[in-house]
Amino acid sequence: MIGVVIMPMGSPPLSTQANPMRWLLLLLWGVCGTAHSQTLTLWHAYRGTERTALETLLEQYSQTQPGVVIQPRAIPFDGFNAKLEAAVPRGHGPDLFIAAHERLGTWVPLGLVRSNPEAMTNVPPLVEHALFHEGNTYGLPMAFKTLVLFYNKERIETPPESTDALVELATRERDAGRIGLAYQATEPFFHAPWMHGFNGGLMQQGEVRMDRPGAIEALAFAQELSENGLVPKEPTSALVTQLFNDGHAAMVINGPWFLGEVDPQINLGVAPLPTVSATGKAAAPYLTVEAIQVSAHSEHPEAAWALSQWLIQTNQAIFRATEGRQSVATTTAYADPRIAEDPVLMAFHAQLEHTHPMSSGVWMAASWEPLARAIRRVMRGAHSPQAALTAADQEFRVVTAPPPPAANPWPYILIATFLALFACVMMARSAWRQQTSIRDMAHAYRWIAPAALSMGTLVIVPFIVGAAVSLFAHRDGSWTFVGMTHFLDILFARDWPLTSALSFWFTLAVTVMWTAANVILHVGIGVILALFLRTPWLQLKGIYRVLLILPWAIPNYITALIWKGMFHQQFGAINSLLAILGIEPVSWFSQFSTAFAANLITNTWLGFPFMMVVTLGALQAIPGEVEEAASIDGASGWQRFWWVTWPMLKPALLPAIVLGSIWTFNMFNIIYLVSGGEPDGGTEILISEAYRWAFTRGHRYGYAAAYAVLIFGVLLIYSKATDRVLTRRAS
Amino acid sequence: MNRPSLFKMALVHLGLIVTTVAVLYPVLWVIGMALRPGQAFSMDLNPIPAQITFEHFEAVIGTTTADDGWLFGRQLFNSLLVAAITSVIGMILATTAGYAMSRWAFPGRDAGLRLFLITQMFPGVVMAIPLYILLDEMGLLDSLLGLSLVYATTAIPFCTWNMKGFFDTIPVELEEAAQMDGANRWTTFTTIVLPLARPALVVTGLFSFMTAWNEFILAATFMNKETSFTLPVVLQSYVGDYGTEWGHFAAGAVLVSVPVMILFFALQKHLVAGLTAGSVKG
User: Fold this and answer.
1) Are A310 and A276 in a shared domain?
2) B118 to A719: CB separation less than 8 angstroms, yes or no
3) Is residue B108 domain-resident?
4) Distances (CA, A) of A350 to A78, A296, A334
5) pTM value?
6) Of A38, A498, A588, A636, which is most buried by a Cβ count within 10 Å?
7) Chain B window 48-67: which residues touch A at a Cβ cutoff of 8 Å?
8) CA dihedral A713, A715, A719, A720 (to 10 degrees)
9) In CATH, what number is assigned to the domain containing residue A586?
10) Are residues A40 and A310 in contact, defined by beta-carbon separation less than 8 angstroms?
11) What pLDDT, in 10s, does the model give residues A109-151?
12) ipTM > 0.95 (yes/no)
């Protein structure tokens, strides 16, 4: 979900020409038979049965290979890539890691992975093709992931073989008051089978296009499914699972991970996706290959390679398939009766023939966002498939545009040096002028030195390094110095029209609104509750206080998603509540105002407890007598608050308000998890745009860093404005 | 204390009960998911599960290391340790800095205050990798101390500002009186100022604790072994590439919030302790 910007660090990619020599040396060293044991670290993000199967095999391997000690490390998927890209170049990475093949386009140029020393055998050609990147093959396939059709055997006797049959079955289900087919229709990954089935694949004859005739027909087909009520609205993965488990939906398109979520009481059938009736071609989902890679920085590459080869051999593959429930990619494993008689594994294997390997090129990752936006526009009825895909194609071109021309770094170096010198001189001058008071105040510096020192090293230094990145453009692992180009592109809206939801100024306006609304609500609710909880005669204060800070205490990843579920158009709790009150259901994420409100409500729920706690503390600085005196003088509750309590509360509360607004300005999580920028990127804030440039738009780290610097600049101006209020008391 | 009318009391209670129920509804969902069999994300309107199971809690708590040690216990200990070190470092550095900034108008103070504020504006997006390199160079990678230091520096600006704001409301006269009696600066600070600042110390401590308690991205990046992970990292590892083990995640989320509740419950009497009122302005 959340990632971190990765910058290139030192170590150029190990050139493949240099490898054989090193391999040979290491091999000789191995043959000479040293008694040293080799430790191999292996990083993976496996869970449950997959993990148990893998670890059992690794255990077996170390027993048969006395010289090899294997240390498997389970890393959360969320931080996996960031950790890998930070650790490997610094020499702290693993010898081996298991990851999806799509990131090869990033890892090969960064020099993280080692190309295979020999060709692989016993692997389906499509799988091998997926691991091929710019002339070399990287890693060996552990498993493949692809979408298939899951169905409830009590409803569907024979799975549909064509889309016509699928639509017929789904219509029958709909007429019975149920949902025909549940799948995440608005996600490009789930839409892709139709796209390929209608001959509308993104990459054809070496060119990427989003608005091919086939793609338009495929989108029209999906639109029809939605308009005829055959698929659920706003389909999230949680909703799909729920609909299937409670018998609402008879068919689901999903991947192997769905198996772990299906209620065991359901009579489950699995089948390959149907053929598209209009073209006679099979609906072909994307193929992801989970491969075991040898790190380019591994000290034991030959031992690592031997282990990865062993893991994909037939016997081990059978073990992983039967025990770990993996769709293994070893061809001979499927001849074994234990697998051949397993209908689920065989259905995935049958689907494998009709898949499109995901490209490992960076353009692939950049295609998701424009395509998703197009699908959502169409499903909402805002655009025709043709218009939506034309717009998507243009957006895609902006995002994947070639880097700006290199700039001459010398003027920048000179200016930076001059500015640094100037700043030093100014500081020295003011220090000289105030030398007596500095000497007198020596004790004060001793008091703040520990805080200042730790902040200087751990916050300011990393920021300067990070900010410098904004002067470089990043494409496919190489960096060019481009000077101020990124800033000019962003500020003059050269990429998008000024009024577009994706332009800097539009996003800035949304961000300011977002911040102001949040802070007013957090402080308002927090102060009101704190005042209530201070009422002297109130019983059970302690209980209320503890219950009311719960939103702060629970990790917000899960609560934010619960809120998103509550805002669901068809099945959410909020629309159900509105229905009880006789109000029409609201489609929360299809208009700006309601999507913004949904984000705001969620973040207010999360944010008020902190303000409440701060206010409770700050209120203690106000002596009760002052308020009592006022109340004896006949002041009403409101007057007492406004003229007595608030002025005394303000100084202690102001830091929390100013800092609270800065944090809200950069509150990325909630936007990402609740509205996800819907509709059409309108509810994105600056920081979420920065993340998108860094991670979903072709890893343009420099551009993202420029956004970060601009965010910093905006906040700096804001703090100048509040500065007067804040430091007034001190002067 | 004059008691208000019964009607007003009922109104205040009603208001608080309605707010609390509204606030607790999503929380009930988390608890419901933690107790419901299966790993699905529930979207039912009724958060109370039809069937109750403790299997998720057992699975989350019962994790073991390779040599059959109690992994969850180890990770809980890591989390508590990191949060405790963060709070201690954060509070020490913030109270001293906040006190100096509140009491003495030394050259560079305003700039320093502003600089602390500014550091909060650096979007984390540009910081993680430079921090990784820095910790590596300092030999603090994969160490709980290194992680705590990073957390403390994120918490210090708020803590300093908060302490300074509170110190500003404590009259200097109290300290001057003590100093006339021969107490030195440090003694005055620890025996007079700090006890008066208890409510602000609670806020500061709770805030630093929470900063460290719920963070997982940096922890997952800097820590290498499962035995050195903190609980949020463990929690996040229930979120897979495509699917999430929601039952486990919810159970973990409930467990993670329990220590916070206990801490807050224990601290809240200091947060609302009415000792300042009489003594300060008296």
Assistant:
1) no
2) yes
3) yes
4) 31, 35, 11
5) 0.84
6) A588
7) none
8) 30
9) 1.10.3720.10
10) no
11) 888 999 999 999 899 999 999 999 988 999 999 999 999 999 9
12) no
